[in-house]
Write a structure and sequence with these properties.
Helix 1 runs antiparallel to helix 4 and helix 2 crosses helix 3. The radius of gyration is 17 Å and the shape is elongated. It is built from four helices and no strands. The protein starts with a helix and ends with a helix. The chain is mainly α.
């Protein structure tokens, strides 16, 4: 397996890991385990940052160094609009949520707990959605309907 083939699997694993830490962090805050919540949320953010670096590296290598365009989705029928709906919502929300994730983390780390809690109630479900749909896009694109 060459370098380019590793990235989609690695990226899906990073998305899944981030989502898992988000869920565990949510559990910890609901059970008032603040230090564990903080550790999970910082880990989720770190894993998401590694994902972003790997994602950008993958696409830079494909485009600039190998001259390969985007991977084509080969599914046909009803799955096609479902896939593109998931992909579009995932992409837009990933771009939109990123600065709000950083703001939420900042407020939590600075002890601005009321502001942190208020924004986290909105940011958490979007961030979790982005993590989950990242894995779904991977499964549809590379496992269920792989390019020939």
């Amino acid at each position: 397996m060459d370098l380019l083939q590793i990235f989609p699997h690695l990226n899906a694993m990073l998305n899944a890991t981030s989502g898992l830490f988000l869920l565990v962090g949510f559990y910890f805050i609901r059970t008032k385990q603040i230090a564990k919540h903080r550790a999970c949320m910082l880990t989720a953010a770190g894993v998401s940052a590694i994902f972003l670096a790997c994602y950008l590296t993958h696409h830079a290598l494909r485009s600039y160094y190998f001259g390969i365009g985007p991977t084509r989705f080969t599914g046909e029928g009803l799955i096609r609009p479902i896939y593109f709906t998931i992909l579009t919502s995932h992409t837009i929300l990933a771009a939109v949520v990123t600065p709000f994730v950083l703001l939420t983390l900042w407020r939590g780390l600075k002890g601005q707990y009321d502001k942190h809690k208020k924004i986290a109630r909105l940011v958490f479900p979007v961030w979790l959605y982005v993590s989950i749909t990242g894995v779904i896009v991977y499964l549809l694109l590379y496992q269920l309907y792989p390019a020939q």
